[in-house]
Amino acid sequence: MHDYEKWKDSLLGTRINGFDVLKRIVDILTDEIYLDDIRGALHWNEIAERIEALQPEMEKRKKLSPATAHKIENLCKTLRKVKKRPVPIFVIAPREWFGEENRSTEFSPSLIKKAIGHGQKVAADRKQWLWPPQ
Predict the structure, then answer these.
(1) Quick one: pLDDT at residue 16?
(2) CA–CA distance, 34 with 22 (Å, rounded to integer)
(3) DSSP letter string, the chain
């Protein structure tokens, strides 16, 4: 049987409890949500751009087989129906953390004010943006 009271994290030298694990899970899930949203937007952009690239082929319909022309036309109609189009994507993220720990569950007004100021500086300097890559 393990004596968890004596167990310490070898890297930090601190005790880890269930609440610490839960806070870390919230951090990870929060990150995954926005990362998945970015991946989805990039994926839709690629789909929309590829379908839009077929548009000029529609104007050359005489050179296409009727089946191919019909498929291209259906793709274009479907894209308009789901209201998807390529959009510019920019990712602006903090370059540093504020507070003693990197926690998404810390709601200190002074830290929030610092983070907002930092965000404004990062947004003003395009070289610090994460996407599109420079």
Answers:
(1) 67
(2) 19
(3) ---TTT---TTT-----HHHHHHHHHHHHHHHHHHHHHHHHHHHHHHHHHHHHHHHHHHTGGGS-HHHHHHHHHHHHHHHHTT-------B---SS--SSS--TT---HHHHHHHHHHHHHHHH-GGG-SBS--
Note the residue count of the chain: 134
Task: Domain ranges for the chain, please list them.
Answer: 7-89, 91-134
Question: pTM to 2 decimals?
Answer: 0.59
Residues of the chain with pLDDT under 70: 1-16, 60-62, 99-105, 133-134
Q: Which pLDDT does position 124 carry in this prediction?
A: 94
Contacts by 74-79, CB closer than 8 A, 24 or more apart: 75/51, 76/51, 79/47, 79/48, 79/51, 79/52
Supply 18's token pair: 């269930």
